[in-house]
Fold:
Amino acid sequence: MVDWMEDRTGIVTQLEHFLYEPVPKRGAWLYTLGSATLFLIVLQFLTGILLLFYYVPTTDHAWNSVYYIMNEAYFGQLIRGIHYWSANFLLAVIGLHMARTFFSGSYKAPREWNWITGVILLLLVIGLAFTGYLLRWDQDGFWASVVGIKIGSYSPFIGGYVANFLLGGDVAGPATLARFFAIHVWLLPAALAPFIGIHLYLLRRHGEFGNQFEYTDRLAKLHEQQRLEEYARYELDGEEDGAEEDGRNGEDRENGRYSDRE
Amino acid sequence: MVELQKDRITRGDFLSFGFIGAVMGAILTIPPAAFVLSPVIKTNVLGQSDVSQDWQMVGPIDDVPDGEPIVIEVDFPIDQIYGNNEVQEQFPDTQKSNEEFAVRSAIWLSWQDGQRPEELQGINGSLTQEQRQLAEENLNILSNICAHLGCPVRWVIVEGEGEFLCPCHGGIYDINGGYIGGPPPRGMFRYPVREVREDGNLYIRHEFDDEDGIPGLTTTRPHVV
Structure:
């Protein structure tokens, strides 16, 4: 079955590459931050899908539906809690991941595009965080969004257009909630997914620790080394076992052979 | 080097691809862009507003005290994405038609410099034309949203002196809404279209005094409420 999948998709090799990624020995744990980010984004997708079963994106029901999720729906607190905390940790982990990339110089050639797609992903996640805040339609989220929209209104030349685009009119109202919902639930996640794909494809192409050719070489060397070690162990075992065998069976055999001859 | 184009592009290819590309691109991009941007086109380009331009009652001016402002909530009906006026007029008694969507604005009312004019002391009953005019001139009608980033300001007394303070970034205004300190680029937003009627009630319309922000670049508008 594994061979069948491997022959048709190459998935086993890919998984092996991802799971046995060679990373620098120094600060090896820092190289798990990217995976942590991916994990949290997947969590966001899953819990977000679940929240949509109860959330109602209208000004007269949004707050009530969140209240229902938190107090009536089974495990609602857990699901929304994960969505909320994972969103918070996501930004923190992305920051750490970015810092690791920066301080280990991993943005340098040939990985510039990994950095660029990473920055695009960061901006998309910030957009998701910003639009998600309003959806609760409570005082906290509402005024935070008002501040955010007003910040947008200070952009030179297009400030007024930016503000009214986000508002969906010239005051905060039903249209604002509707478009923040659309942006949060469809537009940005749909934009996020392909960039995650590109980010991972480029990671696979260049590896954490050298490009594909280096990587293949390293892997070949690693396998060679493992094989040699295995041989050495086998030979060692063989010698030890052989010595004992020589001590007993060997003589017997010789004796037997001799006895045959005789 | 990787080679993208094996065959040479002829002038004809270029023009026909360019033409077809332009037409297809326009067909594919203009409708969705206009769909998403329609509020921007309606408000910014055509200058329409979601907020009803009818007069809204604020309250009796006699309630405005000396020396400090009072806050009054006013609901301005809005017509954003909900509702169809035609249907609502046809079936006025259904539940849907009676739901009104409004943007709730808090409005600070005070007398100019906190002093009520002598002629308006102890008014009751109907006002004369002069009294109404005087009241319109001497009332500060201020939106409670900060001119900086739109947080709601409140009236605080610091060392015996009152001032409007924004909780977000510490913008400070005086009782007339004039700028004192902090990050706001201007004073508080005023409602310049006002009317005091004979019964002593104040009415306003949803309009603000726009000012140029960065000259030639931006105007400072309330934008949000």
Chain A has a mean pLDDT of 85. Chain A touches chain B through 27 residues (CB under 8 Å).
